[in-house]
Design brief:
By secondary structure, the protein is an alpha+beta fold. It is built from 23 helices and 27 strands. Helix 11 crosses helix 12, helix 12 runs antiparallel to helix 17 and helix 14 runs antiparallel to helix 15. The chain binds one RNA strand through helix 6, helix 12, helix 15, helix 16 and strand 22.
Length: 649
Amino acid sequence: MKNYITTPIYYVNGEAHIGHAYTTFIADTLARYSRMVGMETYFLTGTDEHGQKIEESAQKQNKPTQQFADEISATFHNLWDEFNISYDQFIRTTDESHKKGVQAAFLKMFENGDIYKDFYEGNYCVSCETFFPESQLMDGGCCPDCGRPTTIVKEESYFFRLSKYERPLLEYYEAHPEFILPKSRRNEVISFVRGGLNDLSVTRTSFSWGVHLPESLNEPRHVMYVWLDALMNYVTALGYGSDESKMNFWPANVQLVGKDILRFHAIYWPAFLMSLGLPLPKHIAAHGWWTRDGEKMSKSKGNVVDPREVSNAYGVENFRYFMMREVPFGQDGDFSQRALIDRMNSDLSNDLGNLLNRIIGMSEKYSDFNVDSSHVAQYHVKELSDVAEILKTAETYLFELQPHRYLEELWRVFTIGNKAIEEHAPWTKVKEGRLDEALATVALVANLLAKASIMLHPVMPQTTAKIADALGFEISTESYTALIKNGDLLKAFTIKKIPPLFPRVEEPLMAEAPKAMIEEAPKAEAKAKMEDKKVSTVSEDGLITIDQFFQTSIKIGTVLDAEEVPKSSKLLKLKVDLGEESPRQIVAGIREYYSAESLINTQVCVVANLKPAKLMGLLSEGMILAAKDSEGLCLVRPEKPRLSGSSVG
RNA sequence: GGCUGGGUAGCUCAGCUGGUUAGAGCGCUGGUCUCAUAAGCCGGAGGUCGGGGGUUCGAGUCCCCCCCCCGCCA
């Protein structure tokens, strides 16, 4: 079975940002999965290099246009290599074979009457490379998309009979509900097409940086419209119009796009294909945008996330995992270091990494790293069948293009592993001399990790290869077939002791977004969130200013009353006089060291401006200062009695 | 203004064709084991399911009205 997966080709007007990385990560994951299950897979990405905008950008930098395109294209190419993206081809619209293919397509459309010559007059936005009808223009004739001034252009142009495909397209959408994903986007496209389609101007005479028309048409002044040129890349990459040896990969299975370019891919592209007599792709899947800390990213705000920077700081695969796990496909996602760190610590370090460490430790102690699965089925039928079920479900989520659900589902395997260890407590079994049982549990968990690693491999290829190595097997189509499809277990194997794969991340590893951005974001909510999350305001040398210290209000308080909190062995509920109108209720975890009675009428130090918190359902309006070491805990108190409410500092 | 989609626990979301005490993850919190990365496991708090009306034996789930958010179009 053939499986062709594409990303959009990225416009070389600027360097790769987080959105490019996201699309490419998803496509790479799908491609890797496809290869792993043994499908014949072709994964295409590349760059879109034509158009007036590129021509102008190159001029601004005083570079030949081709050189400019080469340079930017290389930055994408290099980044994907750095990110270990497993593309089969990196196409460039300046490739000769691509140009040849586009010309062949143009000619075919022309010959079958779908392209005709006429005049176009309208308000043209150079920046967006789009004509806009009068009615859509903003005040002063500015572009409704970018707000820049438009110019009136009348030019000879070839047109594509898009209008002819209005009905066929609607019929196709109707007959193929899975064509446009997610569904909400599908509705948008349908209603747009229902609104009527105008024929599409597909050539320009106003600039020359593009694919020229086929020579047989003898139209040297005309250059192809950038979208016709660009969209065709998906088939010219397979050799359309030149060496067609790979055309058997067509139609594509999944064509990933950002939501901003959906219309081109869901309307123009299928119409072109219909005109060429080619089948339509199975899915056009539109994903959402990324914001940063709840704010739209923009160069002027200086809050753009550089994927390379994130990757360098946190690791590509952790980054990949985060992006795919964090946000439901199609929705906008928010990037913040806090969210990334939380995912890494909670999912990767705690659930997965720690589980691996647990069995490394046990296998070392109990059997000198030697494990075999022969007793697993005897003691762990339930776990094995539950996991088999989970893996099946997870797989369907991936096919449905719901990577977040797929990962969420997969993580249940680790919970089962952690629970199994807890329930079967191998350390107890060992003490009781039931070594077989203990080792069966270790082997079970090793197998669960092996199976989950295989499934996780498309998302984190290198990391899972390390896990597999530690467990003495290799991830491949063969092991996928054996462990996932056939439900086999690993044979006897030796575990390798490896250092933790996912060390916990205690604090942000990248500099925070520039101050300007934070100040521009007066959202009280966002601010409170940052404070809640203890984003450090401490300077690099670890010192704070006196002003910062005095943000904390510490006061002398007199304990008026104290009682034990029911059902808690640690908590005491205190009534403390801080010289205010009424005493405060403070819940303190000191019961193990102080009895309630002994505290009444003594003095303590209280942090008085702490945000109230609830402990065991009881409101606590402050914190009692205490010092703790191995000997125990003691309260910090004034040497001599002071007035209640006296400040400390 | 028109049309989608949506408003469910502090946060992010799941809840199919209406049916027992509305769920998950994270966060918070109490307890507990010791193989392990201050990890794991067990338990708890927390929701008038945007608001109002209606249909029904029964509605987060259907109908009507209103409010708010995103998106597309104008």
